[in-house]
């Protein structure tokens, strides 16, 4: 079982589609794509930190959304832009001043809607720092 | 009925607590605080845009979170840092390339938990672009 | 501005569509429908209570879902069955052993998706006991 | 690694705490509890059906909530009643007219908050029909 787009193809598409993702220098890195899944890494960078050295909520939310989007894109191909309709986050533990990894898994990939979850871990740790679910509307094929 | 902190006091606290909010230049502006409420504006800025000129999801999520946080802060005072435990977003319409305004309202302000909703509008429009709800854990008083 | 179905038409449709709603005797009552809105009442009944006399979470969740569904149905007409894709609840205060009223408002009524919120109050009270948001997928017209 | 309460102890506690769970005859059955987990089954029963033979949303929501509650109870013991503060559901596929099984896993079990997810499957199937996340407030020890 393979994906509709390879890892390099998905990265190229994302870089074109989300240039602001790495507006201040590269930070979000798609590491792998697979059947109904993707893995994305967020570098440790001062601009994502809050006082106390913990990574900001918005940086975690962006990472989860991008990882889910990448999983959809890799699996349906560049047929049209999926639109995020719902995102829901449970923040579980404060990550330290490290990078983060998001493991995105699609729970459903229908013709009109895709639903997935993303689990965010601090780099090199098994502690879940954030759990996210997202729903994406897939445009009709033209 | 007044708030525990005035608008200038809340702004000063936020600027100290969230310096990364305006890391690339001022963008998030707290406009008002009131009983169980706050209003925050996000400037139009290229770094929040996606192709097509629409404002990115992460920028909207950050705005909603900051506005809810400001409403809590203004209403409980600087007694301790509330921690976001849950955020949930419904993205309703694509905003154009304009600024955004978030109207945050607290639905519950308990001793341990605060729950609120934020409604995001494009500047100068009545069209709701995003509806958010958030839950915040309030630390025990020391 | 009127609705696609009147109150009696919407009630008749719901009774056919959700017979299990009132499986153990009438309990859920649609009180009004309007542009992008509906109001539904849940009777006080022993089978919805938890120890301590508070109304059970599942009864509140059912009420919110039915009220949102009724708002959609009244506004789009009986063109097809909307399917609940996401429901999210914040439980704010324990209601006492009374009936409940749900005020449902649609935030978006698109061709493919409807999104709404429901506010649940104890009968005769202004205290919000639960806030819900729901997303519904609207089938393509045949 | 064991749980604070055994399976029979947890069942006895639930039956006392949620008598309305099985108000119309036994339907919800706790099958197992483990470290940070629980598994609950919902019998196939006419009163949970919608036209077309699919299981109603409220029955699925109740099952997810009970399963998460059971996981918390088994793991913290009968020290106090956890209160549901947030529940969020993604409905993925329509289950047929069968029973359901919920696999609940706690993502965090803190002193004040527990967060978990529940995955609902049709009996004898690997198809996920619903994914739920829940947050529970744990009362201070007396």
From TrEMBL, chains A, B, C, D:
UniProt keyword list? Hydrolase, Membrane, Transmembrane, Transmembrane helix
InterPro entries per the UniProt record, alphabetical: HotDog_dom_sf (IPR029069), PAAI_dom (IPR003736), Thioestr_dom (IPR006683)
Q: From the Swiss-Prot or TrEMBL record, what is one GO molecular function term?
A: acyl-CoA hydrolase activity
Q: What residues form the membrane-spanning segments?
A: 66-84
One matching Pfam family, short form? 4HBT
Residue stretches making up the Thioesterase domain: 52-124
User: Is Transmembrane helix included in the keywords of this UniProt record?
Assistant: yes
Q: Does the keyword Transport apply?
A: no
Coiled coil spans = none
CDD domains given in the database record: PaaI_thioesterase
The superkingdom of the source organism is: Bacteria
Q: What is this protein called?
A: Thioesterase domain-containing protein
Q: Which organism is it from?
A: Methylobacterium bullatum
């Amino acid at each position: 079982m393979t994906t509709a787009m390879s890892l390099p193809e998905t990265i190229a598409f994302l870089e074109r589609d989300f240039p602001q993702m790495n507006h201040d220098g590269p930070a979000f890195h798609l590491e792998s794509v697979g059947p109904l899944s993707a893995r994305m890494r967020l570098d440790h960078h001062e601009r994502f930190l809050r006082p106390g050295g913990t990574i900001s909520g918005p940086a975690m939310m962006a990472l989860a959304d991008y990882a889910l989007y990448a999983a959809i894109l890799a699996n349906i191909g560049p047929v049209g832009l999926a639109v995020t309709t719902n995102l829901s986050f449970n923040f579980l533990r404060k990550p330290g001043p490290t990078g983060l990894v998001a493991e995105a898994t699609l729970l459903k990939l229908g013709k009109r809607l895709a639903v997935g979850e993303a689990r965010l871990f601090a780099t090199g740790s098994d502690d879940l720092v954030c759990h996210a679910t997202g729903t994406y509307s897939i445009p009709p094929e033209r």
